[in-house]
Design brief:
By secondary structure, the protein is of the alpha/beta class. It folds into three domains: about 190 residues, 3-Layer(bba) Sandwich (FAD/NAD(P)-binding domain); about 120 residues, no CATH class; about 110 residues. Helix content is about 40%, strand content about 20%. The chain is built from 16 helices and 19 strands. Strands 7-6-15-16-17-14-18 form a seven-stranded mixed β-sheet, with helices on both faces. Helix 1 runs parallel beside helix 10, helix 4 runs antiparallel to helix 7 and helix 4 packs across helix 9. The chain is globular and about 65 Å long. It starts with a strand and ends with a helix. The structure holds flavin-adenine dinucleotide (FAD). Flavin-adenine dinucleotide (FAD) binds next to helix 1, strand 14, helix 15 and helix 16.
Length: about 475
């Protein structure tokens, strides 16, 4: 591969975004993907005519408002999927109350106040505080091209926002919330949303990240790509192919060859090698530095940092066929049960309610998940039997909350933290790579550049962290670094 060529390890959204921008700018792009399908966590699969999202199903940044890098990117590539806005975005169930999170803020407050009389005043005070943080975030040059020169210009123009970032840098969103929201029920409703959004606990989530996410619910909204999450991936693959790039499937990279501190090539599991001086790893930081690069080439400080990164949680997923009559009227597209009465938090997504092609006549396709410990699934003994028992245990818990659920559903597939790890190469089966908590987020995230010349990272191991919109931004930042060099 020549100088203006780039080899990308992994066809997750992070890797594909880099590939699409580089291919569009004339780079020769080759993507090496270990599985038979592109997308990593952002792909769809079919069972008995039901289409499921393998993992990601809730999307921000796809609409024409708010902070919308996905929308901007697909507009630029002109292969974008059609997106459906969800209104309300979530249905939250807590101690018998049902609260719907509407994009329209006043509507949301009215709904909240039916269940929690003090909600309106407390929420307005909370949103006023996070609104100030959001105002400062909106001044950031957080859009393409991500260049140092743009940041310098920003710094000079927006000097006044710096103290706000400094003050909030070490605060969690809970630190902000507790000043305005004293109702424990209201706090738990907010917490349930954050669990889904930031994949973390409200006490660990950085205030700046939390402020962005909560305000975005009402500015940009929540979307679903028609045709499923795999459509987001397919659009990027189309862009890469349209510009002469290639995706190699079932092509597992086993080594990034480094000599004298610079990338020299890749080794593949089939024994082939690729000569290249420019590699983007969309594999996790744990895999990139723990397995793909020989440790002798990685500074000890970085190795320790990566080794000590705490992963986001992992989940057990049940993919369900649901009776149409039972489902319609009873459920929204995204249903969250917050933890309570001895039952854990759970999430049920039913995109076929708004995307007709996702299920056959008379049925709906649902994805139900709840937190699961990776360590509990490591043992191979009785794996299938344990999966069956866990499935029935979880469905039994839903039955307690929604009588008739078990009899109206058929299990078509399940997924454990181990199967997520196996299919996507994600260490610990983590849903979002390293946690975006106070210790690991922002300047403490891994950057896209590495100390190895010619090796870059893209994906949820890097800033800005977990989620499809975040890895899109990570991919854009990496692409811009590469394009600026050429
Ligand atoms: C169950 C679950 C639910 C989620 N829900 C949401 C949601 O609703 N909304 C949201 O925004 N986010 C969600 N996320 C998080 C989001 O999906 C991820 O943060 C994001 O998609 C990660 O993208 P990525 O490109 O970093 O990595 P990945 O999607 O993990 O892609 C990495 C790719 O690299 C390949 N690869 C790895 N190692 C190698 C190798 N050595 N050789 C070749 N190929 C390799 C893998 O096969 C994979 O295709 C969810 C995640 C999970 C697991």
């Amino acid at each position: 591969m020549n100088r203006d060529s780039v080899a990308i390890i992994g066809a997750g959204i992070g890797g594909l975004v880099v590939g699409a921008y580089c291919a569009q700018r004339g780079f020769r792009v080759e993507v090496f993907e270990q599985s038979q399908q592109a997308g990593g966590c952002c792909q769809s699969f079919t069972r008995k005519e039901h289409r499921f999202d393998a993992a990601a199903s809730i999307f921000i940044g796809l609409g024409d408002r708010g902070y919308n890098p996905l929308y901007q990117m697909y507009k630029e590539f002109s292969h974008g999927p059609k997106s459906i806005e969800l209104e309300p975005s979530f249905k939250i169930m807590k101690n018998g109350s049902v609260i719907r999170v509407h994009g329209d803020f006043d509507h949301y407050l009215r709904d909240l106040e039916e269940h929690i009389p003090c909600a309106s005043g407390q929420m307005r005070a909370y949103y006023k505080r996070i609104g100030k943080i959001r105002k400062a975030i909106d001044r950031l040059p957080f859009h393409r091209p991500f260049r140092f020169s743009a940041q310098l210009g920003w710094f000079l123009k927006n000097f006044w926002t710096i103290p706000l970032f400094i003050v909030n840098d070490n605060r969690s969103i809970f630190d902000v919330l507790k000043r305005s929201v004293t109702s424990s029920v209201l706090r738990s409703v907010i917490e349930a949303q954050l669990q889904v959004f930031a994949m973390d606990n409200i006490r660990d989530c950085p205030a700046i990240l939390g402020a962005l996410l909560f305000t975005e619910l009402h500015r940009g909204g929540i979307y679903y790509p028609q045709g499923g999450s795999g459509e987001l991936t397919r659009s990027l693959v189309k862009t890469i192919n349209a510009h002469g790039g290639m995706i190699h499937y079932t092509a597992t990279v086993t080594e990034i060859i480094v000599r004298n501190g610079s990338v020299r090539g890749l080794k593949l599991a089939d024994g082939n090698s690729i000569d290249t001086s420019l590699v983007v790893s969309n594999a996790s930081a744990w895999s990139t530095f723990g397995k793909l690069v020989d440790k002798q080439h990685v500074p000890d400080k970085l190795l320790n940092r990566v080794h000590n990164l705490k992963p986001t949680s992992s989940v057990f997923i049940i993919y369900l066929s649901m009776e149409r009559q039972f489902t319609e009227g009873g459920f929204d597209v995204h249903n969250i049960w917050s933890a309570g009465d001895g039952l854990p938090a759970m999430m049920l997504s039913i995109p076929s309610l708004i995307d007709n092609g996702a299920a056959p006549i008379g049925k709906h396709a649902g994805m139900l998940y709840t937190e699961a410990q990776y360590s509990n699934w490591k043992s191979k003994s009785d794996y299938q039997e344990r999966k069956r028992i866990e499935t029935e245990r979880i469905l039994g818990m839903i039955e307690k909350r929604v009588p008739g659920f078990r009899a109206s559903t058929e299990v078509l597939a399940t997924s454990t933290p181990i199967s997520i790890e196996r299919h996507t190469g994600r260490d610990f089966g983590s849903i979002g790579g390293p946690k975006s908590n106070l210790e690991q987020w922002q300047a403490r995230n891994l950057p896209n550049r590495t100390p190895i010349k010619g090796l870059f990272l893209a994906g949820d191991s890097t800033f800005p962290g977990a989620g499809v919109v975040a890895v899109t931004v990570s991919g854009m930042m990496t692409a811009d670094e590469i394009l600026a060099m050429s």
